[in-house]
Amino acid sequence: MKKALPVNKLKVGMYVLMPMSWTDHPFLKSQFLLTSGFQITKMIGAGMKEVLVDFSKSQVMDEEQAPVVVVPEKPGNEVVLDELRETIFDKTLPPLTKAKQVHQYSGEMIKNLLDNPTAENISATKRAVADVVDLILDDEETSNHLMLITDHDYYTYTHSVHVGVLSICLARNIFRRSNAHDFYELGSGFFLHDLGKVRINQDIINKPGKLTDEEMADMKKHPNLGFGILNQTKQMTNEAKIIILQHHERIDGTGYPKGIRGDELHVYGKICAIADVYDALTTDRPYRKKMQPFEGLKMMKEQMMHHFQKDMFEQFVLMIAVKKN
Ligand SMILES: [Fe+2]
Ligand SMILES: [Fe+2]
Q1: How many separate domains does the chain show?
Q2: What residues contact residue 61 under an 8 Å CB cut-off, 6+ apart?
Q3: Closest-approaching ligand to the CA atom of 255
Q4: Which residues of the chain fall below pLDDT 70?
Q5: Distances from the Cα of 212 to the Cαs of 63, 106, 168, 231, in angstroms?
């Protein structure tokens, strides 16, 4: 028995059918069992008003009747991680669709993590990042699309995904699959490079303008704060430590938190620094429009070249320019 129900009447345990084409709703499948309130929130967020409910496949009866089975509600992040994994391993998805969905679910995963950076969430996120790393290393077409996806607005979670993807791609090109590097731990470090921002006053993070000296001094604490979170939650690795602490250091010594220079900077920190600046320039900010990839790279070359390792930056330019054409 199928019945149309308004989205706000849905309950966990109902089997729902999307009333539109799968390209127009935010789920991987067009019919599924609701296992979390998060999925209902997602429908509301996507502007959906009504869906079909198939009560013959549901684990609860009609909305007026008492539920016959209580389905344990999965936390939102578990649902997202399931959907991300399912997308990565779905061999039927065209590369562009797969890239868009991996991008979307990765963003939601990092958003959930930043909302609640517990040891359990960090560890679950690291496992999911390992699947994203495998996808980037094994599926060139999808990873090329993934690298070129940009968002309009800048949020720490979308930025984390972009920097994660771009840095893994650059590391892949530089290290050429050498087994001297643990790509899973590198991937986690890149995705979590700004974790410390969760401990910074959000008014500073979201300030639509230039930061005062005092606010900037607070902002500059985020590498050490991120390091602290990973230490406290016992999720630290050597790769994450280097990336989190060094992604704002610069070759000429003008970076922070320590102002180290030249060869004192580890190659992992240098990779993340390039991806980090590129993403910041190519995303809309409240105080300036985003630059096109070419403009961003040009500005980095003309005005910031002393910040980066030259051959590494050239590899990055090649990676973006070749994929863009
Ligand atoms: Fe940062
Ligand atoms: Fe960053």
Answers
A1: 2
A2: 55, 67, 68
A3: 1
A4: 22, 62-76, 177, 323-325
A5: 54, 32, 33, 30
If asked whether residues 124 and 21 sit together in one domain, one would say no
Ligand 1 center to 184 CA (angstroms): 20
Q: Is residue 210 part of a domain?
A: yes
Nearest ligand, measured from the Cα of 276: 2
Tell me the CA–centroid distance for residue 266 and ligand 1, in Å: 16
Cβ contacts of residue 64 below 8 Å, gap of 6+?
Answer: none
193 CA to centre of ligand 2 in angstroms: 6
CA of 246 to the centre of ligand 1 (A): 9
CATH of the domain at 268: 1.10.3210.10
- Residue 74, pLDDT score: 65
Q: How far is the CA of 31 from the centre of ligand 1 (A)?
A: 40
Number of separate helices (H) and strands (E) present in the chain: 14, 4
Residues in the 5 Å CB sphere of ion ligand 1: 194
For 202-256, write each residue's pLDDT tens digit: 999 988 888 999 999 999 999 999 999 999 999 999 999 999 999 999 999 999 9
pLDDT (0 to 100) of residue 308:
95
Distance 195 CA to ligand 1 centre (A): 8
Is residue 36 domain-shared with residue 111, that is, in the same domain? no
